Amino acid sequence: MNKPTDRTIFQNAWVVPDIESACMKWVNELGVGPFHLTDYTPGTFEKITYRGEPSDLSMKVAVAQAGNVQIELIEPTTDKCAYRDSVPEGQLGFHHMCVWTLDFEADLRYMESLGYAAANTGKVRHIDFAYFDTRPLMGCMLEVVTKNEGTVARFEEIAETARNWDGKDPIR
User: Fold this and answer.
1) How far is the C-alpha of 132 from the C-alpha of 141, rounded, in Å?
2) pLDDT in tens, 69-96
3) Which residue, among 54, 96, 59, has the nearest Cα to 79 in the 3D structure?
4) Nearest to 73 by CA among 57, 91, 61
């Protein structure tokens, strides 16, 4: 199949009302962890759009590895964003699956040609990303992220912390 997106789904993501509480539920009830927490404050991202218009994006994100799947928990701190399109403030809900892209512009054109609008697009540290509103296809959004050595290496570091995790230091 000659499709631009790498169709390997490597991440599942949930929007949560309280990031630390959500992390600890995953740790205590499912044994998933440790979570690596980052606070993306306003201005962290470049070239943010929301539904085609210039915007801002901020959130707290916690990432852990569960076997072959990366778990991402997101507490949005911006009101107008892809996260709030499907999960209202104060609620918990599955939001997206994530795949790599090797050609961001080609994926953007391809997904939009199918009728799946980009809810958010942006860039952070030379990494392009987009959340496509694929809810009519699969009930959630699809995130596409530029694959590069640095991001792959960071995600492997996170996965390594989970391999022999002893339960200590669950949020890092």
Assistant:
1) 6
2) 999 999 999 999 999 999 999 999 999 9
3) 59
4) 61
Sign (positive or negative) of CA dihedral 158, 164, 169, 170: positive
Alpha-carbon distance of 112 to 67, in angstroms, equals 32
pTM over 0.70: yes
Say if residues 140 and 96 touch (Cβ distance below 8 Å): yes
Biggest CA-to-CA distance, the chain:
47
CATH superfamily, region 5-162 = 2,3-Dihydroxybiphenyl 1,2-Dioxygenase, domain 1 (3.10.180.10)
Query: Alpha helices of the chain — where are they, by DSSP H?
Result: 19-25, 82-86, 104-113, 135-138, 149-163
CA angle 29, 19, 48 (to 5 degrees): 135
